[in-house]
């Protein structure tokens, strides 16, 4: 029988922490969330920019998008009721196209809806960067490498392909500039990562999902919310959790996790170290915070936590331009393929028409918000010749605008300075003018080559400590809202199993086409025997000659 008196302390109120609170409170457990910030939602929360005391403009840490393959997050959104009788999932809107803008080439629109003609099918599955198409040999090569990945077994992916960078796996050094730009676009579309550092396993898995999203008739390729993230999703979520009895202690930092070397005995919170005890503890703080909380005693109790210190983060942060006129650009995202700072953007107002948000309620002068994500903070820009992490906020704004204008202002001047009413940089970034230094309080985990083995799973060897954040081992395996949600579900499952609950939260695997299953199983056996994948052999044969091995996989690659 389920122990309904169990008390759970959730440390951190981002997507991971709120997911645990959701799953456990729904099943009657008593949950308290301890959150360092004043507002819940972590990296997913919006913030408010107040240029004057009576104007409050909505801003995002970075714009949010929900690809079709996000099953766990979509399920959670569908279980959050809103006051108007809808659920948060009802407030997802499918985009229609991505504008791919280039400095060196003409721009193009990539459809983000299911192909309806042969031409659209070809466009959907062909790797391309704007109009600058990869040559046929490269397209062929790219697709064969993807086929190698799709036909490789679980073990090979984990022990071989996680040890290789995406750059090397796809042999980018020996391909054209268009091919390399395409790889950068593939990795930066979701995370702030250079393909030279990214794990081939992590990025190829997600790339396969994104391609499937594009062509699958039952999945929307990508969706976004119809208003600022906190208004539409996080605030209703917190309201719902409160109604289920969840207690929130915002503005309360966890400063230590205490242990007797076997179990967790309590946590210390706030500046004074106020002790908190519970039956179960769920650490839902980001990797760089967890690293500081992991003591040698804690590693004794939960040895898998030792790897957390080896995980790496990079910067990805948002910048909002508030415009006096709306500039829709495209009904979806924009990718600036030659921008040194890895820019992507979305023009928000066109999607905020049906939701709860009204521009007129907050500022008459603002008609549009161009929300920009900056994914590369280390490459010099075009105006000051400095990387973003060495710029002042004002320089960042000037530089980002210039890089976008360079891409968008061809025959038609779409971005002119007089459109800017105001702008706001992510408040997680603070600039010290004396030290001339920019600091980022919210870096993002990156799945670097070889990092899988350092990542702990949601349940640890300490019987009352669980983990729920985007660095935890999950099927999703990329630092996203989906992986944080999945980690939260896995942590909740482990606790619920321990209290004897029957009805456990659901966790979905990433699905790949069934046609490859027998070959993947074959490859698992081949891997155990120390044999290479035929796709790897093919690569080693100069001139692209195919191996003649008379095996199932060999035949596949002829
Ligand atoms: C700019 C940007 C854009 C992104 N866009 C997308 C996107 O479009 N789609 C997508 O799926 N993902 C996106 N992501 C990734 C996604 O936002 C994160 O992976 C996810 O939100 C992480 O959730 P989390 O709960 O693991 O961690 P976090 O969101 O970091 O939450 C951890 C919480 O712990 C709190 N905390 C920290 N220290 C303490 C402490 N000592 N005590 C108590 N609390 C503490 C923090 O304040 C925070 O609220 C984006 C990320 C960035 C940076």
Concise summary:
The chain is of the alpha+beta class and 558 residues long. The protein is 31% helix and 21% strand. It contains 17 helices and 26 strands.
Annotation keywords:
single chain; 558 residues; alpha+beta; FAD/NAD(P)-binding domain; D-Amino Acid Oxidase, Chain A, domain 2; 5-stranded parallel sheet; 21% strand; globular; binds flavin-adenine dinucleotide
Structure write-up:
- The protein is an alpha+beta fold and 558 residues long.
- The chain folds into three domains: 7-36 and 251-312 and 451-499, FAD/NAD(P)-binding domain (3-Layer(bba) Sandwich); 46-95 and 221-227 and 316-440, D-Amino Acid Oxidase, Chain A, domain 2 (2-Layer Sandwich), CATH 3.30.9; 114-219 and 513-556, no CATH class.
- 31% of the residues lie in helices and 21% in strands.
- The chain is built from 17 helices and 26 strands.
- The strands form eight sheets. It has a seven-stranded mixed sheet with strand order 8-7-19-20-21-18-22. The protein has a five-stranded parallel sheet with strand order 12-2-1-16-26, with helices on one face.
- Helix 1 packs parallel to helix 14 and helix 2 packs across helix 14.
- The longest helix has 19 residues, at 481-499.
- It is globular and about 65 Å long.
- The N and C termini lie far apart (57 Å).
Biggest sheet strand line-up: 8-7-19-20-21-18-22
Small ligands present:
flavin-adenine dinucleotide
Spans of at least 5 consecutive residues with low confidence = 542-554
What is the global morphology? Answer: globular
Q: What is the top-level CATH class of the largest domain?
A: Alpha Beta
* Number of DSSP strand runs: 26
CATH architecture verdict of the largest domain? 2-Layer Sandwich
By secondary-structure content and strand pairing, the structural class works out as: alpha+beta
């Amino acid at each position: 029988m389920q122990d309904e008196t169990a008390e759970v302390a959730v440390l951190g109120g981002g997507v991971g922490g709120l997911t645990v609170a959701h799953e456990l409170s729904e099943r009657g457990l008593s949950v308290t969330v301890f959150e360092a910030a004043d507002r819940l939602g972590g990296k997913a929360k919006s913030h408010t920019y107040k240029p004057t005391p009576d104007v409050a403009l909505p801003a995002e840490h970075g714009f949010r998008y929900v690809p079709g393959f996000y099953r766990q997050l979509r399920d959670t959104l569908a279980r959050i009721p809103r006051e108007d009788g809808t659920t948060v999932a009802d407030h997802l809107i499918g985009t229609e196209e991505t504008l791919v803008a280039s400095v060196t080439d003409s721009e193009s629109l990539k459809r983000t809806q299911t192909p309806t003609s042969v031409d659209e099918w070809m466009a959907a599955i062909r790797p391309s960067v704007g109009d600058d198409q990869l040559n046929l040999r490269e397209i062929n090569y790219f697709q064969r490498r993807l086929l190698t990945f799709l036909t490789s077994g679980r073990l090979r992916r984990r022990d071989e392909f996680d040890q290789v960078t995406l750059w090397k796996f796809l042999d980018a050094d020996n391909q054209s500039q268009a091919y390399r730009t395409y790889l950068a676009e593939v990795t930066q579309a979701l995370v702030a990562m250079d393909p030279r550092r990214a794990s081939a396993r992590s990025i190829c898995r997600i790339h396969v999902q994104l391609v499937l999203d594009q062509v699958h008739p039952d999945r929307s390729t990508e969706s976004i919310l119809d208003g600022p993230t906190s208004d539409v999703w996080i605030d209703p979520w917190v309201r719902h959790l409160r109604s289920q009895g969840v207690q929130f202690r915002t503005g309360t930092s966890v400063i230590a996790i205490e242990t007797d070397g076997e179990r967790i005995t309590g946590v210390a919170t706030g500046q004074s170290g106020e002790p908190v005890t519970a039956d179960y503890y769920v650490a839902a703080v980001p990797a760089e915070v967890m690293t500081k909380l992991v003591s040698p005693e804690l590693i004794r109790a939960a040895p898998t936590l030792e790897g957390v210190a080896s995980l790496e983060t990079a910067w990805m942060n948002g910048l909002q331009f508030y415009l006096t006129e709306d500039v829709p650009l495209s009904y979806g995202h924009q990718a600036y393929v030659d921008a040194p700072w890895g820019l992507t953007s979305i023009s928000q107002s066109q999607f905020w028409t049906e939701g709860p948000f009204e521009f007129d309620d907050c500022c008459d002068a603002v008609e549009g918000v161009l929300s920009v994500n900056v994914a590369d903070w280390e490459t010099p820009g075009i105006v000051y010749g400095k990387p973003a992490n060495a710029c002042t906020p004002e320089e960042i704004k000037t530089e980002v605008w210039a890089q976008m204008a360079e891409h968008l202002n061809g025959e038609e001047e779409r971005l002119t300075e007089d459109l800017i009413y105001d702008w706001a940089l992510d408040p997680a970034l603070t600039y010290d003018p004396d030290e001339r230094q920019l600091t980022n309080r919210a870096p993002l985990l990156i799945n670097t080559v070889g990092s899988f083995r350092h990542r702990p799973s949601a349940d640890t060897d300490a019987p009352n400590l669980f983990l729920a954040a985007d660095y935890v081992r999950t099927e999703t395996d990329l630092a996203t809202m989906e992986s944080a949600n999945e980690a939260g579900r896995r942590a909740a499952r482990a606790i619920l199993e321990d209290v004897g609950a029957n009805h456990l939260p659901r966790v979905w695997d990433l699905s790949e086409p069934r046609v490859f299953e027998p070959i993947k199983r074959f490859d698992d056996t081949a891997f155990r025997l120390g044999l290479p994948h035929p796709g790897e052999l093919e690569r080693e044969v100069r001139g692209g000659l195919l191996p003649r091995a008379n095996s199932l996989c060999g035949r596949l690659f002829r």
